[in-house]
Amino acid sequence: MAEQMRWLYLEPYVFFNFNGKSALLFNELNNAYLEYENIEDEVFLYLCEQLSNNENNYCIPIEKKDVTNYFFNEFAKYMTKIHKH
Asked: Which helix (H) or strand (E) holds 13?
């Protein structure tokens, strides 16, 4: 059986800024935010780079290796808070 594809996406009301080593996400509906500085984890950096690429429309496929990454899991946990209104 083929593995089910998973996606990470940002809602239109979530502002995202990534400058190479730092990331900011801000929910315009509830003012919740996440801020990361001096990101060094390669998987997390890659995810931020892909999310910030305009051609991806703030939506990227997630691979199994990403789901087991500590920084990705922390990011995903807090994204739940960001996406609540």
From this structure: none
Choose among 79, 77, 16, 18: nearest CA to 49.
18
Residue spans per domain, the chain: 6-83
Q: What is the model's pTM?
A: 0.71
Q: What is the pLDDT of residues 25-40, one digit of tens each?
A: 888 888 888 888 988 8
* 11 sits in which H/E element: none
Supply φ then ψ for residue 60, to 5 degrees: -140, 150
32 phi and psi, to 5 degrees? -75, 145
Q: What single string gives the DSSP state of each residue in 16-74?
A: EEE-SS-EEEEETTT--EEEE-S---HHHHHHHHHHH-GGGTTEEEE-HHHHT-HHHHH
